[in-house]
Amino acid sequence: MIRAYGPALALIGLAALVPFAVSANTVLNFIVFALIIALAAQGWNLLGGLAGQFSFGHAAFFGTGAYAAALLQTRYGVNAWVAFALGIVLAAAIGWVIGFLSFRSGLRGSYFALVTLAFAEVLRILANASAFTGGAAGTLVKLDVRPENFQFVSRAAFVWIAVALVGAVLLMTIAIMRARFGAWLTAVRENEDAARALGVDTLAVKLKAITLSAAITGAAGALYVQYFLYLDAGIAYGPWISIEALIAPIIGGIGTAFGPVLGAVALHVFGEAAKLVAGGVPGIDLVLYGLLLVATIAFAPDGLMGLLMRLGRRKTKEAR
Amino acid sequence: MLSVASVTKRFGGLVAVDSASLAVAPGSITGLIGPNGAGKTTLFTLIAGFEQPSSGTIVFDGTDITALPAHRRAERGIARTFQIVQPFAGLSVVENIAVGAYLRHPRRADAQAKARSVADFLGLNGMLDQSAAALTVAGRKRLELARALATEPTLLLLDEVLAGLNPSEIRDMLPVIRQIRDRGVAILMVEHVMQAVMSLCEHIHVLAQGKMIAQGKPAEIASHPAVIEAYLGQGAAKRLQAAPSGGAHA
Amino acid sequence: MPSTAPRMRPGPKAASPSKKTVMFAPDIILAAVLNGLMTGSVYALIALGLTLVYGVLHIINFAHGATLTAAMFAVYVAQTMLAIDPYVALVPITLLFFVLGYGVQRFVIGPASHGEDRNILLVTLGLSIVIENAMLSIFRSDTRSIDVPYAFESIDLGFTFLALPRVAAFGVALLVALLLGLLLTTTDTGRAIRAVAKEKTGAALAGIDVAHIYAVTFGLGAACVAIAACLLMPTFYVTPRAGNAFVLVAFTIVVLGGMGSIPGALLGALFIGVVESLCGLFFGESLGQIGIFLIFILVLLVKPTGLFGARA
Questions:
Q1: Could you tell me the residue range of the domain that residue A11 belongs to?
Q2: Of A278, C36, C84, C143, which shows the fewest CB atoms inside 10 Å?
Q3: Do at least 3 CB pairs under 8 Å connect B with A?
Q4: Shortest Cα distance, chain B CAs vs residue A256, angstroms
Q5: pLDDT class of C268 with cuts at 50, 70, 90
């Protein structure tokens, strides 16, 4: 147990201490944002990494979580914490529906990627055109800084909430990987026919995976809107978040528990560095992300986690 | 325990299995043989639930399972191996077997224990933590068998488990298959290695061009004119009778 | 990736019906159909590239849209900086993109993906992100178009006017489709491409260099969008995301016409072009946009499983 969960608990503990060491707003901003991406990436990793179903449209879940959390507050006066929870539930529901439609039709590989991308685009166009979501002007959540509104004076509070969410999903992922569900997810990823022959209900496993995945990425969206208090269709359902949610786990180590977190943090450190070097050139960070994605697949298929493991093994060998 | 009644499978205009019937008795080893392209693997696929028959019924342990999907059949006790082995390449040997064991043992520790005991039985205990992708052909065949056995089936469908093995590996495998039967698992096997079929099976069905053309004890099958013709071509039975020596090579 | 659905600038005197109009004269509908066919012919070129690559590599090239964007910028640069007319630039740009496509498949996608379909998918996605954002870095997000003297030339059909550049696009697109068909059926390379598409192991055993054929196919796919870019630019604009919108339509067409089928892509493209044009006429533009996506999702979901995912 300690071997399985120890490193995760240690990492969560360390992360929770960061606000005591750092007080600069820019750094805390960076941490919260990277953790939101990490959370979205953890959701992607559950479906893409563990179950092998590559979604190119996780924005559908991020955006649904975000819009639900925002609109429930602004339009229906629902309490922010309740809206946050309902956002997760609605994202999960969208995940189930998209999963049901596409997995029932037997879509996989390129086709699954394509159909998820299309769903996200439909939602983006609808959100951009509809008056209900505030259309192209977007939606503002009213600034009213009180803890019961899920708004805090100190950015540290948000760091802790983000660490708690990412940490909870990290522990959950480890638990899943050690349980029957995890074995079934891997079996589905590696070989669906063989899994079915061994009594695995592959459709049910994939549906469970996409629902859970959508809930996690939806939580990232809901947290995003609660932190920035503003949302439009491009942020919520735009391709940027689908891409980040996918690249972070691959760079960090696809199908590993720590990969998405490591990848998201590394990606944003790279991104910030690139912005510093290149100045205000738009798109330069994404050029770098794309290059990193291709380079990772070409040279380090197991991502940063794979590199770390290899390094660790070499160290122990030398120690002997 | 398994009875397949007049099952037909059409793919477009092609009739792959044409009103075939067969039965497997509890605790027996039954063979399914036939020339290439006879429809053996298709019939297997229908019994395991990977395809639905166009007509006919499949009854297992007294219940009609014709409409059940593959995973539900596995729950009821039908396990299969694949002609082309399908290991979960990213998993270790013991993890591969555990996927099967999880069917009856939801808890990790129990499933792992079950997986280890099955691995032990099949002589895989020395390579538990190896990656499945790193196994030899013989090792993969055993892994395929181990995974199926870990689901604790009462009926095991073996699709050419001996194909690709060398003679000494085949000799090692035969007692393993007998031991599985002795543990109370009925076996239905598709096999091309005739000597093995003749020595293992108590009962043999012969499929040719989608139709059952003969069934009976190994000795009866070996001398059955229709079988000899199916394998060796028209008039072969007569020629063999003229020079009687063929028999078990059929 | 995509941002806005492609909208051709309408012909000079094309009827732009007011929303209040309930009934449409047959002339207007006929004009819409003709316009749709012309749009469809450009879609066809883009879809041909996509379906050709799918048919041979059994993978969806997610960098197809970015390639189109890059080609459109190439046309833009040729015209504005080198003063080369798009129709003159057609030959060199097409050749350039063939070579680029060949090189990218041979030296990037092939080696980077280690022969795994999943990886090809991700590598093409990675390339699309790189190309698209490199365009954004260089050209910024401004909408750019070129000025050609014949942009507003038109042909008078009596009941409507057809923009000359669009008629030219229609003709060239059909000609290119025909040439591509001839290439595949009558040349050795074409036969090799079809052999690899059917059975790559067998083709390799027969002495065909599969990596070379893959790269040629990719090159042809890129050449198709390069031609499409030359035909589009006289009447259309370019932004760093312009290509994606077209390619999403092309995805729809390819799925509709059957993945890997060339006649399917051609007919599907003309059909979608007309549907889009008529939807725009009857329902207005934003709903027409949604219509394409809905057709797309519906076709993906409803078409029998057997046709899908077997290789992907």
A1: 2-238
A2: C143
A3: yes
A4: 12
A5: confident
